[in-house]
Design brief:
76% of the residues lie in helices and 0% in strands. The chain has 23 helices and no strands. α8 packs antiparallel against α16.
């Protein structure tokens, strides 16, 4: 006769009910392949721009559309992803986006001219824009609200590590192999990702009754595209040019019109804006927007400082950014566990001060500032990144009912992409203005490009003043991070309902700290 040893059976129970089970970890590993591939591609191409300009005999203004075209395609397609996931199923959307991304990558690798490469990058961007919202939706539904923090900690890895690994990998491929391999490398990763997703992801549950909000799409997608196009153009001459401010104004008008339309249409809108006013998702969105503007803008300035002032190569600049990645890898899993145990509200208010401390020395950089000092504080910057970014996204995803997860994921990805575009554009313009202010009439009006065109002897003499211009620009990044602390503090100190409570009948609400 067999008997059950009750104490042993009890002791075998998992100590942490919020721990991720093996199946969830496997699904996370499967979808991370696609997430890493798509986000890495947004940074890996940047280091190849100069080589592409030479090989295709194209101006830098023309070849820059290899990056801009991809970004605009992302902005155009992200808004429709939430509806598509609800209508056709997230697994189908994820597999389709991977296939489109791989097709675009393969065509980019065989491009024969600048125009063909730009066109193929747009196709690649259409696929890439749908990948990350689909990944977030898959994992949020798989893990459930009680394990959202740890899942978001896993999903944050490609978002924070890709900007660091991208320049390193891209610099090596461009210098020692071929620029075509920055696209070909996606093919084997994509094949593994598609096969794994086909086997491991659960069958789709789609809602054929979902109707596309055509008016919302006609307002939001063109609005985002025009806004980001205008911001991209502002990097070459500032916001005063017609080609910059006109698209920005037109895009802003369309986006505001979408807000009004969404407020009136409610849950059937492409993205329901009211979701962000009735829950803490609104405070989370505010933190995430300001964080994205400041962080991604600073992430543009830091490698530029290393390359233009200190003379580092693209590969060396990438390696100097590695301490950020190490710091993020330490705090990101920790932030996930703390979020699942205590909730996400207070951690962004803890992480943003670390970001400010980590970025502060860059506001005082010179042409000879110690690399050890900058790398040490970059590590602190990484600690802040890991502690603030993913808890912010978790707070938004936990705040909405299950039916709104796909569209909330879409909204947060729009904020990330839009914030990154605004941050890089604004700080590029500020840097150009600071360079003109420091050098006066001794250079032209094109900022960094004018400095690069100086003779070698004059470039060496310009390192000190150029470092001063960078330092002044970093001050603005610090100001933006300081502004992000305001909604983060509001989120930490406020009292918020859970998704279930906000959906409960009147009188059944229980407000939680």
């Amino acid at each position: 006769m067999y008997r059950v040893n009750q104490p042993e059976a009890a002791s075998a129970a998992p100590a942490d009910p919020n721990a991720l089970d093996r199946e969830t970890i496997v699904v996370a590993g499967v979808v991370l392949l696609g997430a890493i591939m798509s986000i890495l591609d947004t940074t890996i191409v940047n280091v190849a721009i100069d080589r592409l300009s030479i090989d295709f005999h194209a101006s830098l203004t023309t070849i820059q559309w290899v990056v801009t075209g991809y970004t605009l395609a992302l902005a155009a397609v992200i808004p429709v992803t939430g509806w598509a996931a609800d209508r056709f199923g997230t697994k189908r959307i994820y597999l389709s986006s991977l296939a489109l991304f791989m097709l675009g990558s393969a065509l980019c690798a065989v491009a024969w001219s600048a125009d063909s490469l730009i066109a193929f990058r747009v196709l690649q961007g259409i696929g890439g824009g749908m990948i990350m919202p689909a990944v977030m939706t898959i994992m949020t539904k798989k893990a459930g609200p009680h394990r959202m923090g740890r899942v978001m900690g896993i999903l944050g890895v490609p978002m924070l590590i890709a900007p660091i690994l991208g320049p390193i990998l891209g610099g090596w491929l461009v210098d020692d192999v071929s620029w075509r391999w920055i696209f070909l490398i996606n093919i084997p990763i994509g094949v593994v990702a598609i096969i794994s997703a086909w086997i491991k992801l659960e069958p789709d549950t789609s809602d054929r009754a979902q109707k596309l909000d055509w008016l919302g799409m006609a307002l939001l997608s063109p609005g985002l595209t025009l806004l980001i196009f205008g911001l991209a153009e502002s990097a070459n001459g500032g916001f005063g040019q017609l080609k910059s401010w006109a698209p920005i104004v037109a895009g802003a008008v369309l986006i505001v019109s979408f807000f009004w339309h969404s407020w009136r249409k409610g849950a059937s809108a492409l993205i329901d804006i009211r979701t962000f006013t009735h829950t803490r998702a609104g405070a989370s969105a505010g933190v995430f927007a300001l964080f994205s503007i400041a962080f991604f803008g600073a992430l543009l300035l830091i490698p530029l400082y290393y390359q233009t002032v200190r003379g580092a190569s693209a590969l060396e600049a990438g390696l100097l950014l590695a301490p950020q990645g190490i710091g993020a890898m330490i705090t990101m899993p920790l932030a996930g566990k703390l979020t699942d145990r205590y909730g996400p509200n207070r951690w962004p208010a803890c992480g943003i001060p670390l970001l400010v401390i980590g970025l502060a020395p860059f506001a005082f950089v010179t042409a000879t500032t110690s690399y050890w000092l900058l790398c040490s504080f970059s590590f602190v910057l990484g600690l802040g990144m890991g502690m603030s970014m993913m808890p912010t996204m978790t707070a938004a995803m936990q705040a909405v009912p299950a039916a709104a997860i796909a569209r909330t994921s879409t909204a947060m990805n729009i904020i990330r992409q839009g914030g990154a575009s605004i941050g890089t554009a604004v700080l590029s313009v500020i840097l150009a203005a600071e360079i003109t202010s420091v050098f006066g009439s001794t250079i032209g009006g094109n900022g960094l490009e004018s400095v690069r065109q100086l003779p070698p002897a004059q470039q060496a003499a310009a390192q000190g003043p150029l470092a001063e211009a960078f330092a002044s620009s970093f001050v603005w990044a610090l100001v933006l991070l300081g502004l992000a602390f305001i909604p983060a503090l509001f989120m930490a100190l406020g009292k918020w309902e859970t998704a279930e409570e906000s959906a409960a009948p009147d009188g059944a609400h229980v407000v939680l700290e």
